[in-house]
Write a structure and sequence with these properties.
Layout lengths: L1 H18 L3 E4 L17 E4 L3 E5 L4 E12 L2 E11 L4 E5 L1 E2 L5 E2 L3 E4 L2 E4 L2 E5 L4 E11 L2 E10 L5 E9 L9 E11 L3 E4 L2 E5 L2 E2 L2
């Protein structure tokens, strides 16, 4: 009976050890996560509605379905997140549903700043990140850009972006477009030459 018990439960234990727990707290220790002399200074909390897969060989964790990673003041939400223990780098993106529509796109919050985008790469050590196709609220309006770089001092560099106060941030009726911009939170937005676009048509 003892052999039958082990045979019946072993596959279940193997499956559970890969996919669960779906909500846990990962405390980063000196010997577990390092990059040179650097290490994370706070615990990383993570959860997912579908599964969490831990790849100990490559020192990575993969989260699927309503995934959430919290580190200090930083919160990242997406349908797919992967985190590297070795580099302290996190990557997030949405996933296509049965109809091919991308859902669960990343939402990144750092203190008072919130970014919504298609893809996010962020490093917890350097506090720098690359955010593609991003929309963020700034003051009374919305900023968006095809390529955004978040710096350690919380300033933001934007390439091929725009600014609008229209409530429909995805398809604004009007906006100012620019090739390059730098945003200093709660202070100012500095751009190169900008032009007004109304209903998708640029003005002279």
């Amino acid at each position: 009976s003892q052999q039958l018990f082990l045979a019946d439960t072993l596959p279940i234990l193997q499956t559970d050890s890969i996919r669960f727990p779906l909500k846990d707290t990962l405390v980063i220790g000196d010997s577990l996560v390092k990059k040179g002399k650097d290490k994370l200074e706070a615990k990383v909390e993570r959860s997912a509605s579908d599964s969490i897969i831990q790849d100990l060989k490559n020192k990575k964790v993969y989260l699927y379905g309503n995934a959430l990673v919290v580190y200090g003041d930083i919160k990242l939400e997406a349908d797919y997140i992967e985190f590297s223990f070795e580099t302290n780098q996190v990557y997030a993106r949405g996933v296509p549903d049965s109809m091919g529509v991308i859902k669960g796109t990343p939402r990144f919050t750092d203190k008072t700043q919130t970014f919504e985008s298609k893809e996010i790469n962020y490093n917890f050590d350097t506090k720098k990140g690359i955010i593609n196709n991003v929309v963020t609220e700034d003051g009374a309006g919305f900023l968006h850009g095809s390529h955004v770089k978040k710096m350690a001092d919380n300033s933001i560099s934007i390439q091929l972006g725009g600014y609008t106060t229209w409530s429909n941030k995805e398809h604004p009726h009007f906006e100012f477009r620019f090739a390059k911009s730098k945003v200093i939170p709660d202070n100012k937005i500095v751009t190169g030459p900008a032009y007004l676009v109304i209903e998708g048509m640029p003005t002279p």
